[in-house]
């Protein structure tokens, strides 16, 4: 169903919306998605705000989880999308950093309290009053709607500059996938040259983690259940080696060989086999978000003085640092560009891990064409 206001004004956003599961009966069991066009009301541009015309928006696995309410806290109707690149079309009176016509990005968060100890450390993503780009309640009580849309209004603190040398479409996924793996690599010391990094899962997050690992000077091994990804991991992404986690002999040979593992897998999977790959003092950092708990064995942690940790994107300062790092090293995501009306098929493919490696919606051209 396509809905468009007959008198669409600047206060409305022409969006791609999911409301399929407001009555979760057989549709939920079948996993059917029904995202469709609708006009939604945007908040007015305030003195600290930037209004952005969206050009591109990445399709994150979180969008799929949220659209299907797999985490159990989706508020419908939902407009997903938190990997946004666009052009500034309006600025508030207090905005000094950004100018009309400038290319900018918006990631996973669009608000926080700005005053707590966590925000003062530039870790707004961990603020107890964090406001997410979609499926969240703003401080003014309104619902947030994401980047499957033509416009978005965002407080300037949560707007990012995109390095000039990065293409807009391939830079968009960095705003979630990029910072999701960059932040733990920095915090947990997974940047020391010549150390051995394992990347578990070669999807939207994993393929960027490989690129970051090589840029930091690490030896990188991709850990995957699919032998079919080996040639691409090594020849295209630059990984040093490839380990098939379903091969017992190869896994046995790799026991105790890795300093770090970043686990990007978004489905339920065993941790014991990954922990076994770590050296003493090794670190396994999980950034995927399965919809059910994982089993964590304690004995191998105690006997090897190993650490299992987690990480959730990064604050605004670190996200800008990540983008600048990508600009310096010419790092972008490998993408499949789609149009708005391809999103339901793309979501079905994403559920099957059938994408290399991130879908990105060509928002502006989708909405400008008949």
Could you walk me through the main structural features you see in this protein, from its secondary elements to its overall organization?
- With 370 residues, this protein is of the alpha/beta class.
- The chain has helices at 26-30, 61-67, 117-120, 168-171, 177-187, 204-215, 230-236, 248-253, 272-276, 299-304, 316-329, 343-351, 363-368; strands at residues 12-18, 35-41, 49-59, 84-91, 103-106, 109-111, 131-132, 151-155, 160-161, 196-200, 219-224, 241-244, 258-263, 278-286, 307-310, 335-338, 358-362.
- The strands form four sheets. Strands 3, 4, 5, 8, 9, 16 and 17 form a seven-stranded mixed sheet that branches.
- The longest helix is centred in the C-terminal third of the chain and has 14 residues, at 316-329.
Considering the chains and any ligands shown, give keywords for the structure:
370 residues; alpha/beta; 13 helices; 7-stranded mixed beta sheet; single chain
